[in-house]
Design a protein that fits this description.
The chain is about 20% helix and about 40% strand. It is built from 3 helices and 9 strands; from the N terminus they run αβαβββββββαβ. Strands 1, 2, 3, 4, 5, 6, 7, 8 and 9 form a 9-stranded mixed sheet that branches. α2 links the parallel β1 and β2.
Length: about 170
């Protein structure tokens, strides 16, 4: 290499570049988008409940957003879905066939996550989907609350609205 002064100058330059790069933090440009989070929006019906529950189940250990309304007790349709809220939990379950379970799916959230407004249950927020196992043939998935501000303000997340009335495949 060259004389010691040139070598010292190059080392000092490399250290400065490395420190500047480390101080700048992660870079997310429009060309390098972050993780996309689906936010399901709309009215849950007997027709789309299976699609929604399957989508939630497919996102185990990932963040999802929900801004959904659901009429209590399946709106009188015994083959649709069941909504229940007890002292601890809010549950949406449906008899849908899946690769995971023979007798259906259920999504469980802490009871305080659901509010009752104008004759419907409202579930609004961001959650991490966790597997709750299979109980009597029903696959169960829990929703753990995630800070909404942390999701919406983070440059590493992109929230994409998904209308559940048009999410059929």
């Amino acid at each position: 290499m060259g004389p010691p002064s040139l070598r010292n100058a190059l080392v000092a330059l490399l250290v400065c570049v490395a420190q500047a790069h480390a101080a700048s933090g992660p870079i997310h440009s429009p060309r390098q988008p972050g993780h996309t989070i689906p936010k399901y929006v709309g009215q849950i019906t007997p027709r789309n409940v299976g699609i929604l529950l399957n989508d939630v189940a497919a996102r185990r250990d990932r963040i999802i957003g929900l801004q959904v309304q659901i009429a209590p007790n399946g709106a009188g349709d015994p083959k649709g879905y069941v909504v229940d809220r007890d002292d601890r939990l809010f549950v949406i379950s449906a008899d849908v066939k899946t690769a995971l379970a023979d007798d259906g799916l259920e999504v469980v959230a802490p009871k305080d996550e659901a509010s009752f407004l104008h004759g419907q249950w409202i579930l609004d927020g961001f959650y991490v989907v966790k597997s709750g196992g299979i109980h009597q043939g029903v696959a169960s998935f829990g929703l753990e609350k995630v800070d909404e501000g942390a999701v919406l303000l983070s440059p590493k997340y992109i929230v994409r609205r998904v209308s559940i009335s048009r999410s059929g495949r």
